[in-house]
């Protein structure tokens, strides 16, 4: 028995001890910070005697602090002996257990019939392959594959924004299609809220006033875990092809040095806006340049979305690892830009991207009311006693 197997065995044993306890709480496992309004909506829907507990990853300490200020109980969450012995008993209180990501410990968790485990995920659509479609998964050991599937099987329902995303989960996780609930993603509601968009734009104007009144080009590629991201040397020249535009670069925090180098190459057209989130920047972006990132699905919902450019300079390599959805190029809005010359030409052309089919496929149920539907489904009977 290796360390991972022992940990899951321990989780199993502890959760079995608490399997028959009263389930009177809602538990949320938090590793992404863009669903806080939904968490507060759940809190508002619960009766006073039904607690909401949020277990958060260390990198979400700021989000946890905000939730705590709103009266939500928050607990730091790291996999390990302490969580197995003290955290699992609290998790086992859950009538509804929300997960915004893959959590390995679920593979060992006892799953009572009156606990509903719901996968909210953290992206509207999928470009990259994951789960069983990830080309590295078949290369893993049989025990690893069993652990993965045990986690996938634990989710009673998957909240998705479209039948298309439901099909991706069905293939990637090898789970039944009836588990997919096309309710829309709560995190997308703000993108369709005039109030939130106005607040985001006001923050941009306050933090980076030099952006206002200019064409804004945002470069936001996907994070490549374990890979040193080195963009082509002529990328800066392409991004600045429109001399009147301002360019913002938004890379993963782990790529800070790469971002600094690229920003220096952009010269006077660059605006450094580290205090602004990607979502906030999207509200003022006229041209989004991305690649395999789910940011494209968010941007396409905004009223200001003008041109969406997919700069795929490493497409051949990325198709091999980590892999992209087989039909990606067929539903891409616009053509794939394979080099910096094509990117520069597209930026200069500044043509409007037709996002209607893209949204019909991936944002089917994202209409600004997803939070209300999800809360109604899982907490419409919150005042009733234990099942």
UniProtKB/TrEMBL annotation:
Belongs to the CDP-glycerol glycerophosphotransferase family. InterPro entries: Glycerophosphate_synth (IPR007554), TagF_C (IPR043148), TagF_N (IPR043149), Teichoic_Acid_Biosynth (IPR051612). Pfam families: Glyphos_transf (PF04464). GO terms for biological process: teichoic acid biosynthetic process. PANTHER family: TEICHOIC ACID GLYCEROL-PHOSPHATE PRIMASE (PTHR37316). GO terms for cellular component: plasma membrane. One of its GO terms (molecular function) is CDP-glycerol glycerophosphotransferase activity. It comes from the Bacteria. It is a peripheral membrane protein. Keywords: Cell membrane, Membrane, Teichoic acid biosynthesis, Transferase. This is CDP-glycerol glycerophosphotransferase family protein. It is found in: Cell membrane. The keyword Mitochondrion does not apply.
